[in-house]
Each structure stands twice: as C-alpha cells, then as structure tokens.
Specification:
Distance between the termini: 27 Å
Number of helices: 3
Radius of gyration: 15 Å
Order of helices and strands: HHH
Shape: elongated
Largest sheet: none
Length: about 100
C-alpha cells in the first residue's frame, strides 16, 4: 500500500511521540528507587519503542525524540484533533502485532 505525503507526515508525528515517550520512561525508570516501579516504567518504555518501530516500517524514516519534552521529562499527552486522523482511515499500523494494552 502506498501512503500519501499527508499520511506519512502524520505517522512521523506519531513516531516522534513514541520515541520521545521511550526516552522519557527510561529516564523516569533510571530515577526510580523502587525496583517494581522501575520494571513497570521499563516495560512501558519498551512498548513505546515497539510502537516507534512499527511507525518506522511504515514511514521508512528514522526520527529523533522531541528534545524539549526530554528536557522537561514530561510526556506529551495531547494528540492531534480527531479530524487529523482522517488521512489514516483504513490503515492499521499495528495489525499483526500483539495487543500491548490487553484490550
């Protein structure tokens, strides 16, 4: 399937969010004293990295994390407005991957 430029641009935004989240959760795990909490944060970081890899396959590009968010160590929680997802209608980037949310 050939992706449009708009679809690739949106997927790249998601890809940046995922790799940024990976770095943030790893940083939080490094600061966490409790080993149980550390393992949870590292698991989440790993899931973020897996999501990044899925998007990387689709975009065929490597991206860097958002440096401002890394500096602040606060994950970006807002997503694009619902209308921004329309260019991705019919695309399931996680098809064939295990469900990490347990839903």
């Amino acid at each position: 399937m050939k992706l449009t430029d708009d679809q690739i641009k949106l997927l790249l935004q998601f890809q940046v969010q995922e790799i940024t989240g990976n770095h943030i959760y790893n940083n939080l795990a490094n600061r966490e004293k409790d080993t149980h909490n550390q393992s949870i944060l590292r698991r989440i970081a790993g899931e973020e990295k897996q999501h990044y890899q899925v998007y990387k396959v689709l975009t065929q590009q490597d991206v860097k994390p958002n440096r401002l968010q890394l500096y602040c160590s606060f994950p970006h929680t807002s997503l694009p407005a619902p209308g921004k997802y329309l260019p991705l209608a019919g695309i399931d980037p996680f098809r064939g991957y295990p469900d990490h949310c347990g839903l």
